[in-house]
Structure prediction request, 206 residues.
Amino acid sequence: MILYWFCWIVLRIYFVVVLRIRVEGTENFPRRGSFILCSNHVSWLDPLLLGAMSPRRLFYMTKAEAFASPLANRILRTVGAFPVRRHTADRGAIRRALHLLGKGRTVAVFPEGTRSRNGSIGRAEPGAALLAVWSGADVLPVAISGAYRPGRLRLRYGPILRLTRPDNHRHSGAALQRMADEQIMGAVAALLPGGPKGPRVAVDPA
Prediction:
């Protein structure tokens, strides 16, 4: 816990003082209760940015490959990350996320599952929608835009999103995919410069 908040302070100083990040929509960030934070994903710095700018501790679903080395495994787990196997129904990761949400924690998810190579928003994995349906937690859409350079980076929180859950077949893969693409990533895209009708370009890949 001490290491987590030490890293939080150092990274927050870096993003605020060095990169002069602009943060918008902070009034939308819940100060209590569980929710799922969903963001676009372009840079490997994105998880550090989200954690440093969050007033609450985040727990991250992170691709299992990132935990390959003992050092990376220790650091990632210390800062609240836990592994998820992408493109599969990883029951262990889902149980961990549901447990955290049940205790009123915040779970951060990149619905696209991987970084975008060209800065545009890609198709979402259904996992974030599955978590929202099973836990009943709301979703906080977040958009990162600009570039990881001084004065050019922006973080924008949107209004809390309560997913519209279909009455029939609500756990079907097709229904979850639609919720992830249309509701979650649609809300994220609307926060980017130009909105949903404009170019879906986020940050310069890093």
